[in-house]
């Protein structure tokens, strides 16, 4: 009996001029092989399916599904499918200076990324998958920046603790700062507020801001702000305001962005909601 043909190879890239410090690639059923090479970036790769032979200096390892590799900038390496095999993988690249800046904001983060390492951690693999879901989605660049900052901090914490997942309580002082930030977002929900500005406003690093805010509210600051915008949008629509006017008043880049965000939260288009209301 003949074997079913393998799915065709596919590859897609993500990059955003608004976020020049990061990019991502996803490859499916790839059989491409590479000579030993380096990147000017800190690279994080994850195996989705198949198997790959990872070589770094004198060390080699066979990587299976769920494995994650962390490769410092300028480290010679090669990661290829096993002979006659195909594999699917994700590869993230970060500007080392940007990563250092994120970690330096947090006085507790000082450990070096070196040397290159292989991690067999379901927790870390889920971090990679979650980040790429956000990067390849239509989410706003502010939301993607928060996801990137959170990923770098979470990955660093996982490396620091041997990839052991820990849930830490949010200190009362941090909780008060999150409450202050919620008030700020309610007052300025229609403004585009960069993550760095929000971090300065509450006196936290960008990573600790995202982590604490997510622990307290269940979402990132930008997602919380979008939710506030949609709440105000529903009120304006019920009052009979035109869709274009509502999108402009709420600070959306355009009407299509408003409609997409609205439908994700209300499960119907703004126009249909207005007619029903």
UniProtKB/TrEMBL annotation:
Provide the species name. Cupriavidus taiwanensis (strain DSM 17343 / BCRC 17206 / CCUG 44338 / CIP 107171 / LMG 19424 / R1) (Ralstonia taiwanensis (strain LMG 19424))
- InterPro entries, per database record: AraC-bd (IPR003313), AraC_XylS_family_regulators (IPR050204), Homeodomain-like_sf (IPR009057), HTH-like (IPR037923), HTH_AraC (IPR018060), HTH_AraC-typ_CS (IPR018062), RmlC-like_jellyroll (IPR014710), Tscrpt_reg_AraC-type_HTH (IPR020449)
HTH araC/xylS-type domain sequence ranges: 179-276
Q: Does the keyword Methyltransferase apply?
A: no
In terms of superkingdom, the source organism counts as: Bacteria
PROSITE patterns membership: HTH_ARAC_FAMILY_1, HTH_ARAC_FAMILY_2
Q: Which UniProt keywords apply?
A: Activator, DNA-binding, Transcription, Transcription regulation
Name of the protein in question: Transcriptional regulator, AraC family
Keyword Cell membrane in annotation: no
Q: Which GO terms describe its molecular function?
A: DNA-binding transcription factor activity; sequence-specific DNA binding
